[in-house]
Specification:
Blueprint (H helix, E strand, L loop, with lengths): L1 E5 L6 H10 L1 H4 L4 H9 L3 E5 L4 E10 L4 E9 L8 H13 L5 E7 L3 H10 L2 E7 L7 E8 L5 H8 L3 E5 L1 H8 L23 E5 L2 H5 L6 H10 L4 E2 L4 H10 L9 H15 L4 E3 L3 H5 L1 H7 L3 E3 L1 H6 L1 H9 L8 E6 L4 H11 L8 H12 L5 E8 L2 E11 L2 E9 L5 H18 L4 E4 L6 H9 L3 E3 L2 E5 L4 E2 L13 H7 L4 H14 L4 E2 L6 E6 L1 H7 L2 H4 L15 E6 L10 E7 L10 E14 L1 H8 L7 H7 L8 E17 H10 L11 E3 L1 H12 L5
Parallel strand pairs: 4-5, 8-9, 8-11, 9-10, 11-12, 16-17, 20-21, 22-24
Antiparallel strand pairs: 1-2, 2-3, 3-4, 5-7, 6-7, 13-14, 14-15, 15-16, 17-19, 18-19, 22-27, 23-26, 24-25, 25-26
Helix pairs in contact: 10-11, 18-19
Length: 689
Amino acid sequence: MQIEYIDNNHPFLQEVITLGNKHSSTLGFMPEGAFLEHAQKKWIIIAHDEENFVGYLMFRVVPRRQRIAIVHLCVKEDFRGKNVTTLLLDTLRDKYKHTYNGISLSCRTDYVHATEVWKRYGFVCKYRKRSRSVEENYLNVWWYDFNRPDLFNMANQSSLKVKALLDANIIIKLRDELEEYEPSQDPRVLLADWLVDEVDYYYAPEILNEITRDKNQERIQRTRNFLRNFVEAKFDIEECKNLATELMQYIHGVIENDQSDRIQLASAIASETSYFVTLDIGILEKRHEVEDKFNIQIFTPKEFVLEIDQLLNKEEYSPGKLAGVTLHTISKVSSSELGDYIDLFLAKSYSEKKASFQNIVLAEANNIQISKIKVVKANQRPIAFLGYRCVNGLLIVSFLRMVETEYKQTLFMQLVSDCINKAIKNGITQIQIKEAFLSESQEATLNRMGFDKIDAEWIKTISNLILKSSEIEEVGRFINASLIERLKTIDDLERTRLLIEIERKLFPLKFSDLDVPCYIIPIKPYWAGQLFDPYISGSTLFGADEKRMWNYENVYYRSTRPIKEIAPARILWYASADNKLSRQQAIIASSYLDEVMTDKPKILFRKNKHYGIYEWQNIYDLCNKNIEKPIRALRFSGTEVFMNPVKLSSIRDIFIANGKPSNTFASPVKIGSNIFNQIYQAGVRGKEN
């Protein structure tokens, strides 16, 4: 079968006109001159097998509305059911999908066969209108979206809100919010006022097809109006169709409702919305299998709201999304290559002058003795661009730019974290970020990571001191004086919380008398390398190893015995025996313990899958293949890796000196602050142990 665009000199044009006239009662009357005009503009696609004309698609290009409008689509009776319609539509789509927003068409509501064709191809029914015929006929207006990004999409992608796609059954129940539902079937918890600032709700375009099956036109219009409260999910329709086919192995059934259920879920996966909220029993029963296969989590309304804090953290920081992201140092590049990066990362939305950005970049490029320029790539596509230099005890970041990606915020946090780690490793006492064009969320991130905005720069002080809290005046010039005064008046619990806040602001500062639990937790060297230790994994961001794992924050899984950790706390990581590595049978790092989660393996894996280190098989092995047996997940951050590990013999000496028996650390051990301080000092002072 051959498919081609024709002009008004094509030998099959007359057959197009004849076939159109033959079916004018359903296609609508079209004068011959209109056929000739469309052909002259190459707005007719035909199908033929060289000798025989098979069918045609006639369309209009509507630049004003950035769409393609189908005028006629007709296939000869003998060739119907042989995929000709799909071939014609594919040809139209492939030509215009990068330059227009989509394809529209109008079709009478009583043309049942044609309706099924449009739905099967991926069109959705946007609305219904009356035709111009004398009889009272109605037309459905259909739309096939090319999923081209616009400013609204980009704004949604860069938002730190949780993004959840609501199943049609949820939306219909929310529309009828005055109805009384059983508690297990009541979705109105999703409309709580406090969620407005935390969640964006999406709907799958498939709901527009579902509601056309309703016989009540007033109710259909009410549903369409109600959908304005949500965001339409955008995705590649062909990908969605393929995903819906894959989902048949989990969600069975061949009736229309079953097909719509699969398309709704496929829409969430294809649009990378991450969360699907439903009350559908069939989907909920299969959610573990679906979640293992696809990047999606499925919740009931109640479960979703209960998990919101965990999901918010995941939206802000999902290092699993950075798999395959690499870092390359730019050195001795041609001016044209550097110019390409300047063009790509110019802050156009802030009306930045190219000459200004060019001067900043070239100032670093022309000072290669002390300056570095780096670019972060994903699939060979540049996604971040930064320049920095180390001079006179300062790490100065002159520019830090990113393109819009779903992991932009995660990447920003990671790059800043690695700047902090580099400063600590090199004895640098202050980081200055001079980037002028930061988003509100990026500025909030800097603030949480211990930076203060002073004039037009973001500044963080790095303190390697170990102090008693009574000696806080030694770092008083770096923190707000009111905080020091407040420490004198608040109770012990609040005082501890505030001291941790100050510690983290001036990280790696430590207060030796901080009253928080401390633990030595054993970890296999392999997992230490995957989670936080670059000396084991052989990779650092500033060393540009593309296999490096990103680890500003992470989770570590373990069994529930013998102790139960309490957060907030401090952790010392003990690398267990591994004769292949030098960093073994030693304490290799310290971290802050932020959260302790105990639950069944599947539930914990769902909550923390976004970190991207552990696969389900790792968790399955940890629980000895007993998925009903609870395990524990420790969420930690602020990891400081020791260049010189504290060997087991030194740890035993410290234990004995503090009246404690020696230990092999086969399982977690709770320790006092004196032992923590002595081991920590041995690790960070760079002594060989």
